[in-house]
Every structure is written in structure tokens, then in C-alpha cells.
Amino acid sequence: MVNCVIKCRAAVAWEPTAPLMMEEIEVAPPQEGEIRIKVVATGVCHTDLYHLFEGKDKRGFPTVLGHEGAGVVESVGPGVTDFKPGDKVIPLFLSQCGECKFCKCPKTNLCDRNWSSKYHDIMSDPTTRFTCRDQPILQFMGTSTFSEYTVINQIAVAKIDDDAPLERVCLLGCGISTGYGAAVNTAGVTPGSVCAVFGLGAVGLAAVMGCKNAGASRIFAVDINEQKFEKAKVFGATDFLNPKAYNKPISEVLAEMTNGGVDFSLECVGNTEVMRTALESCVKGWGVSVLVGWTDVKDFSARPIQLISGKTWKGSLFGGFKSKDSVPNLVCDYMNGKIKLDEFITHKMSLEQVNDAINLMKTGQCIRCILNISK
Ligand code: NAD
Ligand code: ZN
């Protein structure tokens, strides 16, 4: 089998906004430094929906979406020594080559060899290993986990514990690491602090979990969908606010409830208005607000006094975690009970049901739906 083209099932996004189509695709063998992975399970993240319904950049199609997966190594290309067939792995949408100036710097988790630094507008590497109906198919975020097989460079694959349950730890490939790390790494939430998390999808709930694990004394959970509040409690939220239930800005409500504003706020929606609100909800002097939600179609704005008065506005990609080093440790943290994963999973479906899973997220009915791709 090694070095053959594999034909397999994948959900192809042929164009923006259209439903994904189940297709037979050809997956080329791994080239120098690459790994071909049999995907076992994948989550559906809002960033997949962003590409399909919000970003809608035609240059990023046709593509296979999915970037929150886990699987098993099927074969390796020349020069790959750290992986062998059968290893359990998590694909990484953010690589860690270990050699570029960013990888060598402890201040960041960016990597110069990541797909995004070169093809940011396209959101996938044009040298794809996928073909369908004689057309090249792009690999979204370099991962493409809505497919039975995918090929990824070894700098964007984490080898994980042999006993890890793939249908749960797949969530560490994006949403949970992102939200959790945004709180513990990027915001640097401190013991006894007061926090607010805007948006209670998996990313926001993981941010709540991060605030809790970092010792926050009060965690405000903010969402326009009140059905999310019950879950937020499970992860440690103490107060629950629906901005639509007030006739004044939620930043004012928070300021009144906290004697001037929260110490840390995290935007986990991907909405520039909410980003501004999250900043305005912080206390002057030392408040820190972190952008986690993803959007690249609009500018954002705020009054300069917000920063002049001593607040800090930051952003976080993959929770600030150096991906290849950190994901195996996060898997251990889950297996040792330090972080939760099971509680994020509200639905399980097959790859054929991917459009239903996307619809669940679009209509706010799920936290994470896991697609079982193969045994
Ligand atoms: P999700 O759709 O499951 O959750 C979003 C939540 O925000 C929902 O509960 C929704 O009700 C809520 N919401 C919508 N509008 C709101 C408003 N005006 N005020 C308050 N809450 C509001 O999405 P998710 O998978 O949790 O992802 C959240 C965001 O994080 C997305 O933008 C996604 O693209 C982004 N993301 C960023 C990174 C990164 O590395 N920075 C990684 C993964 C995901
Ligand atoms: Zn994601």
C-alpha cells in the first residue's frame, strides 16, 4: 500500500456557501518530510463555517475543510524518522518547524513554515495532495480532516499517547487548546482575578475552563444564546449575562457589577463589535482583553483612551501554545483529569452527516459535534 495513491471518501466544499458533497478523492503518497494519516475522528469548528459562509474567498475553493482531527499514521515519506505507521497523531493547523526565528523565540507560537504565513488569503497550501474529478482540491488550513485520509508535513503533526481516545482528544487540535491557552497563556489569568468570556461555543467554554484552572475568583459568561449558560457552569462560570436582556451596553453592566470592569476579558465570537465591547468591559489601569474569535473581513475600532488608560488589547492564535510541543502534553493533561474534554461533546455523527453537523453549529444547537471518520 505504501507509496500508492489512495482512493477514499471526503466531504468536498466546491464553492462558498454550498453544502459539502461526499466524493471519492485521490490522496497522493506522502512526499519528502510528509505523513499520510488515516483520520479517525474530527470535530467541526466555527473556523470551518467561517471559510464556507463568512470569508467566502473563492481562491480557497474547492477544498476539504476540517482542522480538528485525530488519526493514525498510514505511511511516511522519505526523511521522516519521528513517526511510523500506527502512531496516534493530531494534525496541527499551526506548524512548529523548530528552526525559524519564531519557533526559536519563546515569546510566540507562530511558525514561518506554516501554511498561513504564505497563503493567508487562500487558507490552504496550493501544493495539495488531493485530487477529485481530475481537479486539485485544496487542503484547508493544511489539515483537511473531513476526509478518510490526509497528507501533512511532519512539522504540523503531533505524536500523542498510544492510549489516547482519538474521538475525544481530536478536540485538542483546535477549539479547546485555543480557548484554554488564550486564558492561561495569552491573557495570563491570575489567581483571584475577575474574568469575562464573550461567546460560549467550545472555544469560549475552554476559555472559561482556563480562567477557572488559573484560579479566577469570578467568571462572567456572556452569550446571546442563554442555552449555553448551563454548560458554562460546568466549566466554572459563576455569573451569566445575555447582552440582549439589558437596555444598556453590557460593558456598563459589567463595570457596575465589578466596581469598574473585569481584569481579563476574552472575545470568543469572531465579531468586531464584540471585540470592542470586550475591551471596553476591562478595568482601566491593568485590564487585558484577548481576541480569540476569528474574522478577517472587517476592520475593528475603539477609542484610543481605552488603551491610553492602561488597558492591553492582544490576540491569540491556537491559545499561544507551541503546537508540536504542547499538544501531546495537553493530551496527558486530559488523561490525568487536569482538563475536561468529554463535556464539550454534545453530538456524534458520521462523515456523511457533515452538513447536519455544520447546521447544528450554525443554529447554535451544539457545542462540539464529533464526526467518526473511520474505525
Ligand atoms: P461557536 O459558533 O460554537 O460559538 C460562538 C458563540 O458565540 C455561540 O455560543 C454564539 O451564541 C455566541 N455569540 C454570537 N454572537 C454573540 C454576541 N454578539 N455576543 C455574545 N455571544 C455571541 O464557535 P467556536 O467553534 O466556539 O469558535 C468561536 C470563535 O473562535 C470563532 O470565531 C472561531 O473561528 C474562532 N477560533 C479562533 C481560533 C484561534 O486560533 N484564534 C481557533 C479556533 C476558533
Ligand atoms: Zn478551529
Automatic annotation (TrEMBL):
The keyword Cytoplasm does not apply. GO terms for biological process: formaldehyde catabolic process. Its cofactor is Zn(2+). It comes from the Eukaryota. SUPFAM superfamilies: GroES-like (SSF50129), NAD(P)-binding Rossmann-fold domains (SSF51735). GO terms for cellular component: cytosol. The keyword Metal-binding applies. GO terms for molecular function: S-(hydroxymethyl)glutathione dehydrogenase [NAD(P)+] activity; zinc ion binding. Residues 15-371 form the Enoyl reductase (ER) domain. InterPro entries: ADH-like_C, ADH-like_N, ADH_Zn_CS, ER, GroES-like_sf, NAD(P)-bd_dom_sf. Keywords: Metal-binding, NAD, Oxidoreductase, Zinc. Belongs to the zinc-containing alcohol dehydrogenase family. This is Alcohol dehydrogenase 1-like. It comes from Sinocyclocheilus grahami.
